[in-house]
Every structure is written in structure tokens, then in C-alpha cells.
Amino acid sequence: MILSCEPNAQMTKIIPLSNTALSKQQGFTLLEIVIALAIFSVMSMMAYAGLAAMLDARASTVPRAQQLAQLQTTLYLLNEDLSQVIKRPIRDQLGSSEPAFSIGRGNEILVFTRTVPSWLANSSETNLLRVSYSLEKEALYRRVWTIPDRTQQTEYRRRKLLVTQGVTIKGFSAKTKTWGEVVGEIPQALDISFKLDGLGSVHRTFLIH
Asked: Domain 77-163, what architecture?
């Protein structure tokens, strides 16, 4: 008995890979990586420069905005106070008499008595306030006494308003019709100048009713 064996499968033909296929399987070349790193470095430097510019702008803008906010608050309070001035002398904590209105008394650059609108007045307190603006260590402060004729136990409210290098006040006299130092009377108007860092001198005129 003779057995014969024939192959039932053909030989698989082996096709060599081309150079293009080999290069695709190998990934990025060194030159491509270097170019990508260079582009990333340039973009990072541009982003850092933009961020640094934004931080510098914020660092210079925030203090200026705070300064303008302080100035606006100061001008508002001065306008409110001076529009309610009244000719009413008071007694200080030592029992001495003080004029109703005075300018340039030591570090107190402005002191006066004012009324309180009826809709703001507290029924348990007087409708008069004693207000003082003082310059201390290049800063403007506002003090308010709710009891004008005070004692040594009378308390007051104190608030820091504005950082300033100096304040100049001129009054308009009803007697002489001129601007300058006003003594012994309540002026018809005040010209107040604030010397501010970065802004120079800021003037504002207030009418006194």
C-alpha cells in the first residue's frame, strides 16, 4: 500500500516592508521633537509675558482705584457736613467755650457744628453733631460727637478717610468778599485742596448754607 501526501496549503508569500512603512512605525524624528519644543517654548514665553503685564497693570490699578474711592468718600462727607453747618458754639470736655466754626486749629484743620436732618435724627439724642477733620501722619481723619456739649466721658466716632500729603483750606468771607483766612465768622464757601501722591493737587469748592 503506497501512501501519497500532497500539500494542502500553499506557501505564504513574504512581502518586505518599504522604507515609508518603517518610518511610520518608528514615531517622531528628533528634528520634529526639537521643532515642537521650540514652538512650545516661544508660546510659553508669550503667555508668561502677557500674564506678567496683566499682574503689573493690576498692581498699579488697584491702589489708584482705592485712592480715588477714598477721595470720593471724603468729598461726599465734606459736602454733607458743610451743607448742614449751623452757628452754634459748644463747650468742650474741659468746660471751655469753642466757636461754632474754626479753621486751622492745631492738627484739626476744620471744626464745626452741624444739624442732623429730622428723618435721620435719633429720638434719644440731640439733632446736633460736632464734627472735626484732622490731619495726622499724612492721613485725614473725621471725628464726630453726637453730643456737642461734651464731658471727658463723651465718646466719639473716628474714621480714617484719605491718605494725603497735605490739605489747604481757604474761606470766602461774607464781609470782605475775598478768599483767604476767615476768623470770627462762618465763611460762605470753602476751597479745599488735597495734595495726593500721583494725582497732584485736587481742588473742590463747597458752599456753606
From this structure: Roll (3.10)
